[in-house]
């Protein structure tokens, strides 16, 4: 057919006879058998010793094709080895000259499946494949697909759109993987979104594929960063910031200095990466990070845009926020004010740089956000006063009570706290982490006291997936409290259900939590929750699926009709033994 003809057309250019020539010879000859024999002699393998061996193979019924094929495969292997060897030997200009000549000769046969690997191998070893050949490869889908990544890089670096098409599905996959972890049905305070170490995360499929695609090519690296910035601006999705840091550190792991030395964020990211690994910013590293921030020179402020994106990575924010809470507790013990702690001030500076990433990249105004004095002079001392309240309450509980009776836990929240959570982004972030902290300590009193402040927070941060993922995990530690009507009313009616109808993600997180803890919830409460959480017409598939799973679990828990029937009156009623709650 036509494709066959096209495939072998290249042979003629090289002066090698092909099927068309044989057809012609046979059509114009008087003795076809003699002509065939002559064609075989002229175009066969030119080795004198074969003259006698071939008839011998014929006797054994080995088709000539099979013989030629095996010779051919053998030769091709040798040729591929030779090409790889040429690529490493002699003077640079000479070896590339040899390969270019080879490419010139062989390229016309690139459509022949048997020859294609050789052509591809030659191109793979050429640091600069001639432009004309790259265009031919690009124009042919199958050839492009068959190309080594080394050749594709040369094509991509001048074709951003084509590179974008290759990268785009990987970025989608990455975001999806992150969301699947946040909404996973396994809820635990031991294993959460932030558990995997940075090194483990960088082994992920998408990061590895992107690293492979980029190789040592700075131009491609820059393109990927440009994609990530654009997507972050378009979607505000912070997972793109994580990928920005992971990609750089993955190249760092491979010691690709060609890229690491030109990325101005490299050393900062490397230092921060060590902090994320420890989930804490120690004093030595704090000094180092501060040195990088203070070292941004006049005229280079644009690097702040990149640093802010690195600091906006949720793994970085998590580390900074956890470190802030730890510092505040230490300050209570040392009787020191927040404004007197340089380490704490640095953490806040980095938090606000990270939280300001979107605005900075959007406005293209590269300067550090101004820290609000109130945050340091009013908000943090407030948090410290909560820590003190807890200490006081615990000590009071242990004192022998004279007539004064038990001291109640302070139940009101200072209005200033609620206001800060609504109006100040950094205060809100730290406040939420403080609430996660007391939940993890199983401090029910403090949790119920501060919970009402979460209903309205700065840009609804208390209803963001990362916070709800962590909160639901920590709430499993307060499992036994779910049997209490008052606790459930505060948590569900007072917090979760206020947002369920307007925020699909909150609906999902509540259902996740109940799937995990339904056996702990008071039955009457469970029934009203089941009604309140019923999906509406607008609900997405995920909500419906979770709701069905929950309904099935609850069906299994209902006693069967046989157990419910009245005990006949003549028998003495036996004391009912509660069945162990099934999960």
Summarize the structure.
One of its GO terms (cellular component) is NELF complex. The protein has 583 residues and is mainly α.
Notes on the protein architecture:
By secondary structure, the protein is an all-alpha fold. The chain folds into three domains: 84 residues, no CATH class; 212 residues, no CATH class; 163 residues. 68% of the residues lie in helices and 0% in strands. Helix 6 packs antiparallel against helix 7 and helix 19 crosses helix 21. The longest helix is centred in the middle third of the chain and has 26 residues.
Q: Tell me the major beta sheet.
A: none
As a percent range, the share of strand residues is: under 5%
Quickly count the helices.
32
Let me know the number of strands. 0
Shape: elongated
Mean pLDDT, all residues: 86
First CA to last CA: what distance? Answer: 66 Å
Which stretches are low in confidence, meaning pLDDT under 50 for 5 or more residues running?
none
Q: What's the number of domains? A: 3
GO cellular component, one term: NELF complex
Region (Disordered): 557-583
Protein name: NELFB factor
InterPro entries: COBRA1 (IPR010405)
């Amino acid at each position: 057919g036509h494709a066959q003809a096209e495939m072998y057309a290249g042979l003629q250019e090289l002066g090698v006879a092909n099927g068309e020539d044989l057809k012609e010879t046979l059509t114009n000859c008087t003795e076809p058998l003699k002509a065939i024999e002559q064609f075989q002699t002229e175009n066969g393998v030119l080795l004198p010793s074969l003259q006698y061996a071939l008839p011998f193979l014929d006797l054994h019924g080995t088709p000539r094709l099979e013989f030629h094929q095996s010779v051919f495969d053998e030769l091709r292997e040798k040729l591929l080895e030779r090409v790889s060897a040429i690529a490493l030997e002699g003077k640079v200009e000479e070896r590339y000259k040899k390969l270019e000549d080879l490419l010139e000769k062989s390229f016309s046969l690139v459509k022949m499946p048997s020859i294609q690997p050789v052509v591809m191998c030659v191109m793979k070893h050429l640091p600069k494949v001639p432009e004309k050949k790259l265009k031919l490869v690009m124009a042919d889908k199958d050839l492009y697909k068959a190309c080594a990544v080394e050749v594709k890089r040369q094509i991509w670096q001048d074709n951003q759109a084509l590179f974008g098409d290759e990268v785009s599905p990987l970025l989608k996959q990455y975001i999806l993987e992150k969301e699947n972890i946040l909404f996973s049905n396994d809820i635990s305070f031991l294993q959460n979104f932030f558990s995997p170490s940075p090194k483990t995360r960088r082994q992920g499929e998408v990061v590895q594929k992107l690293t492979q695609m980029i190789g040592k090519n700075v131009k491609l690296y820059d393109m990927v960063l440009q994609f990530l910035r654009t997507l972050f601006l378009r979607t505000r999705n912070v997972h793109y910031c994580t990928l920005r840091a992971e990609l750089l550190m993955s190249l760092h792991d491979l010691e690709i200095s060609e890229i690491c030395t030109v990325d101005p964020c490299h050393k900062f990211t490397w230092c921060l990466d060590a902090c994320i690994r420890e989930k804490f910013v120690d004093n030595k590293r704090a000094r180092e990070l501060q040195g990088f921030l203070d070292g941004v020179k006049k005229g280079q402020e644009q690097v702040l845009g990149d640093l802010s994106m690195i600091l906006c990575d949720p793994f970085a924010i998590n580390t900074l926020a956890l470190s802030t809470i730890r510092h505040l507790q230490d300050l209570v013990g040392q009787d020191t004010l927040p404004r007197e702690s340089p380490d704490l001030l640095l953490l806040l500076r980095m938090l606000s740089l990270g939280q300001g990433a979107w605005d900075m990249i959007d406005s293209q105004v590269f300067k550090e956000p101004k820290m609000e004095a109130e945050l340091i002079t009013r908000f943090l001392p407030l948090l410290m006063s909560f820590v003190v309240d807890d200490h006081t309450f615990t000590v009071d509980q242990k004192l022998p009570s004279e007539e004064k009776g038990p001291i109640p836990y302070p139940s009101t929240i200072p209005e200033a706290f609620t206001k800060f959570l609504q109006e100040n982004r950094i205060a809100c972030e730290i406040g939420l982490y403080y609430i996660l902290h007391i939940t993890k300590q199983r401090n029910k009193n403090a949790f119920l006291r501060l919970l009402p402040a979460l209903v309205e927070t700065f840009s609804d941060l208390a209803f963001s997936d990362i916070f709800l993922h962590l909160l639901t995990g920590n709430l499993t530690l307060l499992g036994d409290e779910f049997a209490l009507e008052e606790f459930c009313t505060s948590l569900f009616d007072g917090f979760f259900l206020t947002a369920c109808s307007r925020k699909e993600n909150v609906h999902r997180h509540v259902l996740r939590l109940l799937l995990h803890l339904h056996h702990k919830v008071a039955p009457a409460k469970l029934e009203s929750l089941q009604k309140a959480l019923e999906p509406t017409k607008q609900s997405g598939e995920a909500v419906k699926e979770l709701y069905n799973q929950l309904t099935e679990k609850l069906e299994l828990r209902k006693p069967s009709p046989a157990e419910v029937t009245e005990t006949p009156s003549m028998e003495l009623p036996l004391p009912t033994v509660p069945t162990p709650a099934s999960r």
